[in-house]
């Protein structure tokens, strides 16, 4: 098939899955996760690309801004919606360019319903995902240890196989240290 996107081998094997769920929030890490997932999906497969609108994060943002004169939660949500629509268009364009079937979905989590990672995992599981893919941000180790992280939650709390794509610089550091350790 001319012009189609053929997966590249991953460590010497070719893995083809038909239902992969990818967390895509517009960050560089999430675009790296989408790129990797596109290499794993079978030609007849489908990518479920999900952005999670966690309304509790807007409440926390408002609480932090209250001491600075406050911010309008409605304005923050409208801006988030605008950015999510742009991300969805980009996801559809990138996957269409490579002839990959993709579904774009925005999942809204109300306060008290659990976190974004939990909502993503449950939605993907109900959809029948064979694999979850998420990018890892360059975050503070202290903050991650204190509050956790989206990919860390997925790896430790879901029964669906999960692939976490490390930040680009970390991947280079791991490859460099691995090469140094294996040098004669």
UniProtKB/TrEMBL annotation:
Family, per entry: Belongs to the universal stress protein A family.
Protein name: UspA domain-containing protein
Domain UspA: residue ranges: 16-166
InterPro entries from the UniProt entry: Rossmann-like_a/b/a_fold (IPR014729), Universal_stress_UspA (IPR006015), UspA (IPR006016)
Domain of life according to the entry: Bacteria
Organism of derivation: Sulfobacillus benefaciens
PANTHER family linked to this entry: ADENINE NUCLEOTIDE ALPHA HYDROLASES-LIKE SUPERFAMILY PROTEIN, USPA DOMAIN-CONTAINING PROTEIN
Gene3D superfamilies to which the protein is assigned, alphabetical: HUPs
Coiled-coil positions: none
CDD domains for the chain: USP-like
């Amino acid at each position: 098939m001319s012009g189609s996107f053929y997966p590249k081998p991953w460590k010497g094997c070719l893995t083809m899955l038909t239902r992969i769920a990818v967390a895509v929030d517009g960050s560089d890490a999430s675009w790296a996760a989408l790129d990797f997932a596109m290499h794993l999906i079978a030609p007849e497969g489908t990518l479920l690309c999900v952005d999670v609108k966690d309304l509790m994060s807007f409440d926390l943002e408002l609480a932090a801004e209250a001491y600075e004169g406050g911010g309008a939660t409605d304005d923050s949500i409208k801006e988030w919606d605008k950015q999510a629509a742009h991300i969805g268009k980009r996801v559809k364009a990138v996957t269409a360019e490579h002839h990959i079937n993709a579904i774009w979905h925005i999942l809204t989590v109300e306060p008290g319903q659990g976190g974004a990672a939990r909502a993503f995992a449950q939605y993907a599981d109900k959809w029948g995902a064979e694999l979850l893919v998420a990018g890892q941000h360059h975050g503070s180790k202290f903050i991650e240890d204190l509050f956790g992280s989206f990919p860390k939650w997925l790896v430790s709390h879901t029964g669906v196989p999960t692939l976490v794509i490390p930040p680009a610089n970390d991947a280079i550091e791991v490859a460099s240290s691995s090469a140094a350790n294996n040098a004669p």
